[in-house]
Amino acid sequence: MSSPSPANSAGALESLVRRLRVFPDLTGFEWFGVPQAITSSPTPGASETRKLLRDAVTTCLYENFYCTGIAMPHRDRSLRERSNRYSRFVQSVLNANSTRVAWSPTKVLRVTESAVVTSLGDVSIYTDRTSRLLNTLDGRPIPPDAASPFPSAVKVGARSWTLSASPGFILMIGRLELTGGQGAFHRVYWNLNPTGAAEFVAAATHNLNRLRIPFRLKLLAEPRHYDLRLDRAIVYVNLRAAKAREALAETYRQISHHLSEGVPAMTCTIAPGLAVAEDPGDGTSFGMHRCRLIAEGFVRSAENALTAPTDVLAQVERVFAHNGINLDRPHHRREIDDAYTVDFARLLDRTPSPKSIQADAAPDVPPEVSWLSIADTIGRQVAADAFWSGDRCQWMGGEMDRSNQVVFRTLSGNLYGGVAGIGHFLAELAYRTQRDELAATALGAMRQALVTAEPDGPGGLYDGTLGTVLTATRAARALGDSKLLEQASAMARRLAARTPERGPDLLNGLAGQIVGFLILADLVPDHGFRCRAIEVGGLLVESAEYADTGCSWSNPLIESTANLTGLSHGTTGIAVALAELWRSTGDRAFFDAAAGAIAYEDAAFSEKHSNWPDYRLSRDGTKHLRYTNFWCHGAPGIILGRLRLSQLMGLREPPPHLAIAMESFRRAVEINAHRRGVNFSLCHGVAGNTEILRETSRFEPAGAAWQQRAAETADACWRAGAGFYTTSRVWPCGDIGDNPSMMLGRSGIGYAYLRLHDGSVPSILAMDPTAWGSNSLLPISRLNRRSR
Q1: What is the pLDDT of residues 408-426, one digit of tens each?
Q2: Residues forming beta bridges with residue 127, ordered by sequence position
Q3: What is the distance of C-alpha 397 from the center of its chain?
Q4: How far apart, in Å, are the Cα atoms of 619 and each of 41, 456, 637, 736?
Q5: pTM confidence score
Q6: At which positions is Zn(2+) bound (predicted)?
Q7: Stronger pLDDT, 288 or 118, i.e. the higher one
Q8: d(CA 635, CA 612)
Q9: What phi, psi does 362 have (nearest 5°)?
Q10: What's the number of CA atoms in the CB half-sphere (13 Å) around residue 598?
């Protein structure tokens, strides 16, 4: 059986005596023979000079002894600047974190009528009255209707990570708060390779949360910094708890192939690449604490003119002993039993050594896992993450504000990234699984979405009130809530009476309103909505800008170098909406405008890129053209739109460049089929692209051979996603960290798998009014559940 190996501190310190010499006048020191001056002349206070010297020696030892495991010369640390991989790396790590909500004590900044504004690190948290708040004094919940004054500090169920707690590191917090004060927990060090960071985070957070172990996890945020130190990832946990040791042993077994040999100096080696140490108890890091003690010993030696190695070592040993630490076991204090290290090592005895296992491609999907079971698992976890207040529920998620700062807040009510989208997924899932808890959560989400919908706010299909009332109406019919149906229908009629939106696009403008009102005309039903759709279509026809290449529309809400192409904001989405009107009314003006939009995009196609340009200005205001491959912008969305247009307008012979774009798109999807950690969202991720490719594989004019290749590629992607993520239940989302929403997060991923199971689930990416508005699938009397 393997056993823990305390650091050979005596031998390591003997090497330090030969590498480190403190000047007798306390103005500096030498490290590997290179002078390190602290000050050119004595400062007014000798004690201040001494402190500066000790701190400088401490930092030197920390960076070149503790972090590296052995004494090493100064290294070039200019790599501290962020590389261009930083954001993507941080994104992949945060996506892997299985902790959805962590209780964090925060100061209350201000209280408004609808929100409690707090702050966690560098992120403001806007907590509305449906979010979980606890009083830090007594731990009791603060009711949603609590009157001011609020406590000066609260515990908020908020984001489970921060980039500001420790410079250069990501800090993640477990579902249960790590309590007991300083010194009550341990530090478990992992010499992790950056390529395995996301897999490590997924395994560690899942294993610890599953056994309800309080913990914190910290790891380096910049991939290039991993070469500078051996404490690349640290788990803070109480190792005296047997379940904690079990969880971490299981984590080691799962990811040991991502570890390298070597551990930080003065820690206790448990297994190759894995070490432990106790928390110092004074708020400092373990490495800085021990290095400060060594530095103190060397400074005392210089003050007493001690130069012989044995004398210097004796001085260091006395400093350690004064602090209750033996040099032969520097990872813990003498009065604390460290028998847990023996049991921890025993649990790891049969674990393969680092790098003896090769990382696999996507594992096979277990035979018992079906598309419905994947959707159901995602849905039940989303439902479990909801915050309840009365008969309404809410979720929290991260987003980027206008200044590109991360803001963690309760979700909006819309379909795209808000509560309505989550409610829609859960309602469709509940209808097919008959799970009461999913139905109750879906209805609670829809009530919340309607309550938070602004009467005069955005009225768009995806990011406005129209999508909210549409999905609420469908959910109310499916799940038998007549009161919700009445509320949603009334709000839809008020929306139809408003001034139309300014923008022309599908996502949040006039084109989206056409599609939404056509759906409501069948879903409510009410012919007035169809009349409103026709009126909005007339506005689009009138505002079209004609040229030799066709017609297009300017968007006053988006800066661009030319009128946009694409589905969400460009001419494809507008053409689809106008074609829907032509099918509904037979009015040739709508057909002609749609055909003009198609011609505009045909002229913009780039054969070099096998794609259409994204004319939006970059965030820095530059005009560099981009060619993206997502539903929202680029070939996938345009291809999906062309498929719908071929159905609506009878366009049987696609132009040659469409076939080129389709094959280029298929290859792009194929590349991501076996890549772990890639954004899996609907809007701009693997799930959206794969669903579009699956739809494209049914396009007969593409030819049987290409159809088969496309179908096989799509199936491989769905199975790879299931193989990668069904075990950890951590799906990479489309924004910073975990996101429960429809277009950016887990609800959309679950929705995609639900559509694989049942084709009657209407597409969220290409909203067909006939499929969405069908009442035959949604008997209002089917369910009569009470509110939660």
Answers
A1: 677 889 999 999 999 999 9
A2: 116
A3: 9
A4: 50, 28, 22, 17
A5: 0.68
A6: 632, 683-684
A7: 288
A8: 6
A9: -60, 125
A10: 24
What lies within 8 Å, CB to CB, of 714 at 6+ separation is 669, 690, 691, 693, 694, 697
Helix (H) or strand (E) segment spanning residue 389: strand 387-389
Quick check: is 688 in a domain? no
* 577 pLDDT more than 70: yes
Confidence of residue 429 (pLDDT cuts 50, 70, 90): very high
pLDDT band at 731 (very low <50, low <70, confident <90, very high): confident
CATH number at residue 590: 1.50.10.10
Say how far apart CA 171 and CA 26 lie, in whole Å.
37
Count of domains for the chain: 2
657 in a known ligand binding site: no
Q: Picking from 90-99, 252-261, 310-319, 488-497, which range would have the lowest pLDDT averaged per residue?
A: 90-99
Both tokens assigned to 656? 């040659």
Q: Which of 287, 307, 288, 318 is nearest to 22 (CA)?
A: 307
Least confident span in 72-86, 110-124, 292-306, 595-609:
110-124
Whether residue 753 contacts residue 375, with contact meaning beta carbons closer than 8 Å, is answered with yes
pLDDT tens for residues 446-467? 999 999 887 778 889 999 999 9
Pick the range with the lowest mean pLDDT from 336-345, 533-542, 634-643. Answer: 336-345
3-state secondary structure of 550: strand
Is residue 683 part of an annotated ligand binding site? yes
- Residue 694's pLDDT band, with cuts at 50, 70 and 90, is very high
Closest CA to 7 of 183, 354, 265, 374: 265
For residue 173, being part of any structural domain is answered with yes
Task: Identify the domain boundary among 293, 323, 347.
Answer: 347
How long, in residues, is the chain?
Answer: 788
Signed CA dihedral, 150, 155, 160, 161: sign only: positive
Judge whether 584 lies within some domain: yes
- Beta partners for residue 545, in sequence order: 552
Region of 638 on the Ramachandran plot (φ > 0 left; ψ -120 to 50 alpha; else beta): alpha
Mean pLDDT score of the chain: 83
786: CB partners within 8 A, 6+ apart: none
Domain boundary among 631, 652, 673: 652
**Better pLDDT: 346 or 370:** 370
Residue 760 lies in a domain: no
615-627 residue pLDDT tens: 998 765 566 788 9
Beta-carbon contacts of 215 under 8 Å, excluding residues fewer than 6 positions away, are 174, 176, 178, 208, 235, 236, 237, 244
Report the 3 state secondary structure along 356-373.
CCCCCCCCCCCCCCCHHH
CA distance 264 to 220: 15
Helical spans, DSSP H, in 286-368: 286-303, 309-322, 340-347
Residue 279 sits in a domain of what CATH number?
Answer: 3.30.2430
Question: Phi, psi (5° rounding) for residue 732?
Answer: -65, 125
Q: How far apart are CA 600 and CA 372, in angstroms?
A: 41
Of 399, 400, 401, 447, the residue nearest 422 (C-alpha): 447
Q: Determine the Cα–Cα distance for residues 301 and 289; give it in Å rounded to an integer.
A: 19
Count CA atoms within 13 Å of residue 256 on its CB side: 20
Helices 197-210 & 242-255 angle (0-180, nearest 10): 150
Spatial distance between the Cα atoms of 234 and 231, rounded to a whole number of angstroms: 7
Domain of residue 648, residue span: 502-652
- Calpha distance 386→392 (Å, rounded): 10
632 labeled binding residue: yes
549: enclosing H helix or E strand: none
